[in-house]
Description:
285 residues, alpha/beta, Alpha/beta knot, methyltransferase, RNA methyltransferase activity
Amino acid sequence: MIQISSVQNPKIKQIVKWRDRRDRDRDQKVLVEGYRALTRAIAGNYPIDELYVCPELFQGKNEGTLIAELEQRGATAYEVSAPAFHKMAYRDRPEGLLGIGPQRHRGLADLEAIVRSDRPEFYLVCEQIEKPGNLGTILRSADAAGVSAIILCDSRTDLFNPNVVRASTGNLFTMPIAETTSAAAAAWLKQRGVSVIASSPHVDTIYTAVAMTGPVAIVVGAEEFGLSDFWLNAADVCARLPMMGEADSLNVATATTIMLYEVLRQRLAAGAVSDTGAVPDSADC
């Protein structure tokens, strides 16, 4: 393993620069920090080109096995001093593991070969989400609720921001994600016969009254302004969450999670999926 001790090492300086979006986008890099995120990268067959480790900061999570697996997959490993690692790290309490990989951008056409065909299609469309922490939390919830793929429309958020990686707990690397425009996404969903359900606080229909067991796409909008008129007009139905207090809306990640779990609740009740994520066979239904 290559040793790096100086905080002035060119590789350390380069990684510090990649904390800035402009430099990451220019070089098409993503920083993958922490045991769980790197484990998810392996699960999603996401390439890690370089791995920086600091044994002094390990937390006893079987780091040696993880490092060996990443090296076997082609990562070049560097052992760095604690001061050098702290300089690179994005987290306040780093775990001594930091991977560097390429950014992967997918379009709608790429989803064709990825989306599972053994269950009704289930998409989450995010229009102009602005905050990386919210987007990361949404990715984590989408994975848990069994979303087939996420479609980011007219995005204002850097998908590869370290806060997206952290808040998603690495599900950024396992969830199918396509980036496109709202118009292209709406046309694609219509062509596939997917019912579009727009989330809006300004309509009468309660979200639990909407049938969600068939092919469906939940559409959520920006934190401050919600969905654009385009999606409110393109949707097959608009639905809201009931609000019983003084607040007139929820955080977008919270509202999205509730909507996604209503889809899952209805599908579990209908026997379309089981709580293990599997599609039940005839004996289970």
